[in-house]
Sequence to fold (189 residues):
Amino acid sequence: MAWPAEDRRATAVPKDGEPPLLTDEMKKELTEKYFPRYPTRRAVLLPALHMLQHHHGWIPMRALAEVGEFLGISPAEVLDTASFYEEYWLKPKGKYLIQVCRSLACEIYGSKRVTEQIKKKLNVECGETTRDGKFTLVELECLGSCGTAPAMLINDVLFEDLTPQKINQVLDGLPEDAHKFRDPTVDWQ
Ligand code: FES
Fold:
């Protein structure tokens, strides 16, 4: 049986005359730090995508084209790679990324109610970002916190033993400036 395949190797990504998203500093780091570690330039694609995402918070289409040009890979091939991994964000994320565990222990202990409460409170569906750009909601697999299910991450902070009531408290308590958000269980003094 033959699988229908889409040939996107000739896909063009328009350039808009803005400053490059793959900056000279990034190119220097890729050249000096990563090229010596890999057998070919194109093999550096995944670290380059991580670098772009770390820098911009997500990976715009123009950045995909720029990294393809730098590594000698067509934009369509870069897009195929980037879109294969859930780790890479190809659209902007909210300031707060809420990730609710949907694996077995959390499901048994009520993760669906938790997710529904977040959806209702923020008026978003899973995979969406609120209109003000503050929150993105996704579900993911086990966070390794099954003993305190249901669990979720907000950015890199873990919240456990969740209930719909606790969701309201947590979301209402988030600072407007996400840079001021800290794990409440850690002494930051
Ligand atoms: S099943 Fe949710 S943390 Fe393990």
Remarks:
- Helices lie at 24-34, 45-56, 61-71, 75-84, 104-108, 111-122, 164-172.
